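REQUEST
  id: r-88c1
  op: predict_structure
  target: Ribose operon repressor
  payload:
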Amino acid sequence: MATMKDVARMAGVSTSTVSHVINKDRFVSEAIVKKVEAAIKTLNYAPSALARSLKLNQTRTIGMLIVASTNPFYSEVVRGVERSCFERGYSLVLCNTEGDEQRMNRSLETLMQKRVDGLLLLCTETHQPSREIVQRYPSIPTVMMDWSPFDSEGDSDLIQDNSLLGGDLATQHLIDKGFTRIACITGPLDKTPARLRLEGFRAAMTRCGLAIPEGYEITGDFEFSGGLTAMQTLLRHPLRPQAVFTGNDAMAVGAYQALYQAGLRIPQDMAVIGYDDIELARYMTPPLTTIHQPKDELGELAIDVLIHRMSQPTMQQQRLQLTPVLMTRGSA
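RESPONSE
  id: r-88c1
  status: 200
  body:
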């Protein structure tokens, strides 16, 4: 296998000149560039990413750890992260944990040992990475996306959705449409976004003087099947709700299926509003009214914050909050 020294010898230049031609980090005359490129082509030389990373003490890779889920929200966020990495000249190493704690910690250790330049965590409070592993690699910058697995103190940056405001917006929209019997299908209440969206629902109902009958708050799981089961439960309630706020769009899809199976129409027999604005939402029948989370912007912001942290490791911890927006469609 050809080396940089072989290229330099054939081109009649120094190895540092070959390096400057490859990395384009210093001016080299066009004539020399052509000689080096010709030598590279003749020798079929491929630069060593490992050697470059050891020399520069960076790998141009970013690790991302997520909990696998059927919820399309996660794949859309990952798509935004991957696009942002590509545009900024980084590679993304993605690890799904499948909800397995042992697999999560093994993946985390692997990412750290591969010397990723930075780390993105998009998991849940119920599936937390090992604090000991994170603390073992204090020099690797970390950004928490949408939640914070540990206490708020520390160097990790945090990007969150304003779930309290989003839950309030969704519920207020239903109230403004004239609905008074409004139920809520929440996500797991051990997850901060689910709790905050429920609090937003309650705040809007209280502000407008509307009661929440017993049995109108159903705890789901943020998955399609959870929305189906929860809506079936609500349909058995002696005082059927007029409208339902689901804590995310995946559960709204399941709720649609339960209403379809019961022979009920949306929104004539029951209005539905979701949360996240996944791509599928606009193609449902009718299109789903939902709270938009800027997923591409979340991915882009996470990468920008991480790169900024990598360049300034001693800067103060950043806690950023994205503003949810109501997307009015046909389901409410």
